Amino acid sequence: MREDIIEYLKKEIYERSQGPGNKFGEGAYYHIEAVAKNGELLAKKFGADEEVVIIASWLHDIASITDIDLYEMHHIHGASIAEEILTKLNYDKDKINLVKECIKNHRGSVKMDKLTIEEQCVADADAISHFDNVPSLLYLAYKQKGMSIEEGADFVKNKLIRSYNKLSDNSKEFYTYKFNDTIKMFK
Ligand SMILES: [Fe+2]
Ligand SMILES: [Fe+2]
Asked: How many whole angstroms from 106 Cα to the centroid of ligand 1?
């Protein structure tokens, strides 16, 4: 495991999330951190290359937090930025390509048909990460969108249900407990 690269990326992502290019607020870092945590869990569970999944998870939204203008195509820009950083860090060429594929295909809305197990882990970790960041979603609903208690609860609940429905069948099963525990709060 290239711990040196993972440590470097944590710092790099933290710094970019604090920089002027990040328009998503402090929640962006918590989101990426949660994706890395869930990515590691899923990679272990499904026998994926853990290192590739963890590195791709830390990098998957790097373009969005660097420059809001890159958001629309952040999966494409993110793959290029990842290549640049990982090449500089002397990461294995083949693994860089796997990481790039994970970043390109992490978006539920831009899903490709055939995903490698590593790509699936990152995409699923991205979707399930909302369950680890309910306070950020509540903040978005009540503080940023100014919703009423009921509107906000519905907004967050629906967002969580949509995220869960994006998961692959295997991950749905793996996270059933998390879904049920979290959704209970909104009834
Ligand atoms: Fe993303
Ligand atoms: Fe993400």
From this structure: 6
Per-chain residues with Cβ under 5 A from ion ligand 1: 61
Residues around the ion ligand 2 (C-beta < 5 A): 61, 126
The ligand minimizing its distance to the Cα of 71 is 1
Ligand nearest to the CA of 32: 2
Span from the CA of 32 to the centroid of ligand 2 (angstroms)? 6
How far, in Å, is the centroid of ligand 1 from the Cα of 158?
19
> Burial code of 77-97, b = ≥16 C-beta within 10 A, e = fewer?
bbbebbbebbeeeebeeebbe
- 100-151 pLDDT, tens digit per residue, is 999 999 987 655 566 899 999 999 999 999 999 999 999 999 998 999 999 9
Q: Percentage helix, strand, coil, to 5, in the chain?
A: 75, 0, 25
Locate all alpha helices (DSSP H) within 19-148, ordered by sequence. Answer: 27-46, 50-59, 62-66, 74-88, 93-104, 117-128, 134-138
41-96 confidence digits (pLDDT tens): 999 999 999 999 999 999 999 999 999 999 999 999 999 999 999 999 999 999 99
